[in-house]
Design brief:
By secondary structure, the chain is α/β, with parallel strands linked by helices. The chain is built from 15 helices and 15 strands. An eight-stranded parallel β-sheet has the order 10-9-8-7-6-5-12-11. A four-stranded parallel β-sheet has the order 2-1-3-4, sandwiched between helices. Strands 13-14-15 form a three-stranded antiparallel β-sheet, sandwiched between helices. Helix 6 runs parallel beside helix 7 and helix 11 packs across helix 12.
Amino acid sequence: MHYLFVTGKLAAPALREQLHRLAPLIGFQFEVIELGISVAALMTPRWVASHWPAHAPIADRIMVPGGCTGDWHVLQQQTGLTVEKGPVDLRDLDDHFGLKKGQYDGRYDIEIITEINHAPRYSPTELLQQAQTLQAAGADVIDLGCIPGQPWQAVAEAVKRLRGEGFRVSIDSFDVHEVAIATQAGAELVLSVNQSNFEASRDWGCEVVAIPDAPDQLASLDRTVEHLTLWNVPHRLDPILEPIGMGFTASLARYMETRRRFPGHEILMGIGNLTELTEVDSHGVNAILIGICQELGIRSVLTTQVINWARNSVAEIDVARRLMFHAVNNRVIPKHVDSRLVMLHDPKVPTSTSASLKELWRAIKDRHFRIFADADELHLMNAQQYEHGADPFVLFQNVAQQQSITADHAFYLGYELAKAQLALLLGKRYEQDEPLAWGFLNAGPSQHRHAPVVAPVQNDDQVE
């Protein structure tokens, strides 16, 4: 297949780069038809047909950008070639041609245990609702966090109800009586045991998490493991991750040492100790910690999502465990595979020069407003006027002084300008009438509303 790819001046270099990469992989030939317009999305079928080169290369098919609307029959009649619409974003050409990115299938082998802190304080209904929310985000095991010094009288009922609803349940307590009741009711894992309570584990009949008597006393973990092994108590190990400033780096070294000492044991890492106690958005922290776990063969993590900057930790870990499994097992870097954890910024933001935006404005023949966040400014333009600057209030005021704007259109422009300003601030891609990208938080159908209709100026050569 020999394609003619139609585009504008701004997208042409990136398109050629993509096509040189894709053509040998997929098996097609190509030529790029670069027409005299900066932004390809502004092309209409009639305009493209009128500007079609007289000596276009011989080909089998034409591909036009997916963002161009209209009936392409006029171009097909003129050229005698089938016209195919490509993707809106040229970076999606891989998907358009069915090329898979490294066979990324989302597999994982790390289990997420999510603690409900102070579980006794919740009513049965509230506890169930929390468990359902956490499971929907990706939690595999619901951990009931008890309150030290306050025995939970209703622990058995809580465990039984969650088990009856199909949840896997663990119990987080050092009260051996409380744990015994919970395990009898169906809790499958106990967090945690050391030499202060490990003897009771012989009667619980479930797996336990073994920890050192103190974080820096790794030898005490050896003694606990020795007894648990002798008593045939199933167990996994947790050398304890400590917060930054309290021994974080040393605790990472303990995980490496624990893996060296116990190559065949399952290990757990309580990553909530870092995300809850580090005042930074949690998704990057979670991703790095999951990467460490994947490399060390740590197959379970314990997290919480109490503090607001870690409110989506479970969902973040669910994405990260899939990404890191792919990276480690395929020996590739975790880049350009799954961008759902790129949330505040965007993976790539196309840029335009001030000169190209002015050229675009000169080509506009209608009253529809175009909005751009580019060249470190906001740009608001239609056939009558072009305003640009950093302050959206000034832009709108300047336009409102010269043009008649209805209330619904004023609302629309205000909303779009606010969105464009946010994109500039965060370094995000702004596309008019499309929502900003927020990684996995964008899941679900878009509720974005489009611009109210404005009657365009009639012109046979108009570019909409």
